[in-house]
Amino acid sequence: MRSIASETARGGREPFFLSARQKTVPDPHVTGRLLLLLLLLPAVAVSVAAAQLAPVASHPTTTAPADVVAVVNDAPIHASDLEAAMNTLVPLSSYHQNLKPQKVDELRTQALDGLIDEELRYQEAMRLKVHVAEGDVDLALARAKKSYRDEQEFERMRKASGATLAQIRTSIRRALLIQRVSEQEVGSRCRVTEPQAAAFYHDNPARFVLPEQLKVSLITIGVDPSAPQPDWERARQKARDVAQRIAAGASFDALAREFSSDESRSKGGDLGFVHRGQLIDEFERALRDLKPGTVSPVVQTIFGFHLLRLVEVRPPAQKTFADVKATIIRDLTETRCADQAAAWSKRLRSAARIVVGGGAIARPAAAASATRR
């Protein structure tokens, strides 16, 4: 049975004694922005994106309407662009084989919204005459090439994709234009200063209190949940025998090393510091009335029988501003920038002519969004 430290470090299943409130599922943030592909993604994504994206979409087109999924101020967004965008949200095989149609539709909507916002930002960069020097494109291309083993591999992948070097450079220039206009219109205006962070800290002191912490040691006599009743009775008796030896003066650490099935046995059962509410309910109840230096009665869970020792209690403590300054600045900046970026996108959309549809392009994006909601 693994310990809290080992499970977290290995990225494996959650340790059994963490409460459901403490078990979290990663929620990765996926931008779906094709503008980042050539700069940030691995080699295959770079070549695929270069092949699928038109070099510059912001001009009138004679492409057949059936190939156009949206038009943004007369600039078409093609079905191939949308397919490439969806592939950045989830691998092609995954959404075709494993995702429900409703989820695929949600991803398609998310991807199309991203492409529309990207096109609007590109057009805004052109309107504001944002400039990208050739040297900047050279540097970005060199950075992208570093994801390949060498120049030969880059050329091989480029040729296999059908993308020309000129198309790749045009896509990079477009990405840099969008990046720079975003920094100009949002990034440069949303950063939180240290005085602003300090004001937030002083206005919200309760947010920065380190809760009471308990240093706990554990002995587990593990039982397979599907084991027959006699196995459970033998494990219960073994746990009682260990408890009696501790009560008679035996070392908890030594007995943990000898009998515990939890990986914390290598550290004498030491789980380190946890805060109240972090452990499963059975352990929380057992620790509730313990005094430092005392050991709980035998505790049963679906994983076996356990003894807990409360080693130390650290009372709640107020974190200093120095402790949390970087976190406050980061979190407030992310929130403010996200809010300002959303407001900027709303302004760009309100001033734009956007139509969305399949073969016949006739539905304004705002109406489409309202229908989806």
Tell how many strands the DSSP assignment holds.
10
CATH class of the largest domain: Mainly Alpha
Main β-sheet description = 4 strands, antiparallel
Strand percentage, roughly? Answer: 5-15%
Query: Strand pairing plus helix content: what structural class?
Result: alpha+beta
Characterise this structure.
By secondary structure, the chain is α+β, with helices and mostly antiparallel strands. The chain folds into two domains: 209 residues, Triger factor/SurA peptide-binding fold; 104 residues, Chitinase A, domain 3, CATH 3.10.50. Helices cover 53% and strands 13% of the residues. The chain contains 15 helices and ten strands. The strands form three sheets. The chain has a four-stranded antiparallel β-sheet with strand order 2-1-9-10. A hairpin with a 2-residue loop joins strand 1 and strand 2. Helix 3 packs antiparallel against helix 4, helix 7 crosses helix 9 and helix 10 packs across helix 14. It is elongated, with a radius of gyration of 29 Å. The protein starts with a helix and ends with a helix.
Features:
373 residues, alpha+beta, Triger factor/SurA peptide-binding fold, Chitinase A, domain 3, 2 domains, four-stranded antiparallel β-sheet, 15 helices, 10 strands, 53% helix, elongated
Helix/strand layout:
Blueprint: H1 4-10, H2 37-40, H3 43-52, E1 68-72, E2 75-78, H4 79-89, H5 92-97, H6 101-127, H7 134-145, H8 151-161, H9 165-190, H10 194-203, E3 209-210, E4 213-222, H11 229-247, H12 252-259, E5 270-275, H13 281-288, E6 299-301, E7 304-314, E8 317-318, H14 321-350, E9 354-356, E10 363-364, H15 365-372
